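Hello forum,

I keep getting stuck at the same step: I have a sequence, I want structure tokens, and every attempt I make locally crashes halfway through. Rather than fight my setup again tonight, could one of you with a working pipeline run this one for me? It's a single chain of 146 residues.
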Amino acid sequence: MRWTAFLCRLAVGGIFVYACLDKIQHPQAFAVDIHNYRLVPWALLHPWAHYLPVLEATAGLALVLGVARRGAALVLGGLTVVFIVAIAMALLRGLDISCGCFDTDGGHGVGLDLLLRDLVLLLACLPPLLVRDSGPALEQLWRGRP
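Reply #2:
Ran it on my machine without issues. Output:
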């Protein structure tokens, strides 16, 4: 179970680090993506568009590097729950919008496949969170002490 948790750590952390890259480079476009969900008040759009990618990057890197791994898994699992709720609300409202997940320029549309993908991502957050020793920190691997 330790190595399963380790692989989940790398996968989930890597996904969130990759997902934040375009959002950090294009916060205005990401603010539009957030606005399209119609869940965040206007006054919070731009702060959220700047804050969310930084949170994704910080928690994603922490999870990959094995620093505060359980806290990072909890943060990313919580974000994934928020994303699942936002996607479900968009589907219930019949919104035809881009998810804003990895690309602020079009990207993947909101649909059931996206909802299922995020549910799998949420499940992948659980092993690093629940397994006390979720594999070595990467600095331990570099030093040859797994």
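The mean pLDDT is 89. If your local run keeps crashing, start a new thread with the error log.
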